[in-house]
Design a protein that fits this description.
six-stranded antiparallel β-sheet, mainly beta, 97 residues, 10 strands, 0% helix
């Protein structure tokens, strides 16, 4: 089953929630070529085959509640670390339309 939103179909069956703290946390491998993420608190994120997010250089700041969609290589993971407060990163792969 997928959730349609605008021009994207989301693969809700393979969505993930990644709890992050002062220590970076990592998703499992994401299948697909595009993903949308949204965080419950301000955080830093990094994508790759084995990423580790850091606060600052080398990672992208993601504001709380701001969805971000980007292209990825299938099999990549996303890592998140808090800016100031613990939170949860929602990771939703996009299906091809």
């Amino acid at each position: 089953m997928s959730i349609a939103n605008g021009t994207r179909n989301y693969d809700d069956a393979n969505g993930q929630h990644v709890a992050y703290t002062a220590a970076a946390a990592q998703s499992t491998a994401i299948t697909g070529s595009e993903v949308t993420i949204v965080a419950s608190t301000d955080c830093y994120v990094k994508f790759g085959s084995n990423p580790t997010a850091t606060v600052g250089a080398g990672s992208m700041f993601l504001g709380a509640g701001v969805p971000w969609t980007r292209k990825i290589t299938s099999g990549w993971k996303v890592s998140a670390i808090r800016s100031t407060a613990d939170g949860t990163l929602s990771v939703m792969p996009c299906l091809r339309v």
